[in-house]
Design goal:
- The chain is mainly α and 246 residues long.
- It has seven helices and two strands; from the N terminus they run E-E-H-H-H-H-H-H-H.
- The chain has a two-stranded antiparallel sheet.
- Helix 1 packs antiparallel against helix 2 and helix 3 runs antiparallel to helix 4.
């Protein structure tokens, strides 16, 4: 079913896994279960530098994140009960549209196949939030996204520090700015439970891999595009400063 009246038509929420905020984990990456477990293994030599398993999985992970966080941003813009929550929604939309554009640009150059759907778990994150309203929507959505952004942040830094591929490096640079921006605006909503978030970031539950893997795109299927929204007037490549103490 469509998430929002204004969202990309081909991004939908399916399934009901019954997850709650106490069972959050950032999804595993597409292809991990079918290749060796060494993220440093070089899987291709490209004109942009060697491509490792970790590089490839990072590109797919960024793409998959946008396929659920973009529609959740649209929900926040539509259902958020405070200006701060609606502002966070704008940043999610614009930020993931930008990251998605770069993913779609570099994937063909690196011979990486991108998914067209988020993982079942990620889709459930959206569905769980969509079922709420008012301040409960704000709390549920903001905390889910704060956990997932907090978990991916160290991965971005590791990829940026280690990759020898210039295109992957560009994506890591943009992802670093975008995720920091998203963390900041989510915290400005005032509903983030930091004790709970910190616990969930470091002790994710173990879930079946089929819930954590984005479905492979069907051969010949048109690629889903997350629509750019320059009309929102947001620049997530220049993160807003965190609130001052006191």
């Amino acid at each position: 079913m469509p998430i929002s009246r204004n969202m990309v038509g081909s991004v939908v929420v399916v399934g009901a896994l019954g997850l709650t905020l106490s069972a959050l984990a950032y999804p595993a990456m597409l292809g991990v279960q079918t290749v060796s477990s060494d993220p440093n293994r070089v899987i291709a030599s490209t004109q942009y530098g060697p491509l490792t398993e970790g590089d490839r999985d990072f590109v797919v992970k960024v793409r998959s994140a946008g396929l659920w966080e973009y529609p959740l941003g649209e929900l926040a813009l539509e259902k958020g009960s405070t200006p701060e929550m609606r502002e966070a929604g704008k940043h999610l939309i614009v930020g993931h549209a930008g990251l998605d554009e770069l993913c779609r640009k570099i994937a063909p150059e690196l011979n990486i196949t991108l998914p067209n759907q988020a993982t079942p778990q990620q889709q459930q994150f959206v569905q769980t939030s969509a079922a709420e309203s008012g301040t409960q929507f704000d709390t549920t959505a903001a905390n889910i996204m704060r956990v997932t952004h907090g978990q991916i942040f160290p991965t971005i830094a590791k990829i940026r520090a280690s990759t020898k591929n210039t295109l992957v490096r560009q994506l890591a640079d943009l992802a670093n700015d975008t995720v920091l921006d998203h963390i900041t605006v989510l915290e400005k909503t005032g509903v983030v439970n930091f004790d709970q978030v910190n616990f969930q970031q470091t002790t994710p539950p173990k879930l079946p891999k089929e819930q954590l893997t984005p479905p492979a795109a069907q051969p010949g299927a048109p690629i889903v595009v997350l629509t750019a929204r320059p009309d929102l007037g947001i620049n997530t490549a220049s993160p807003a400063p965190s609130p001052s103490a006191g």
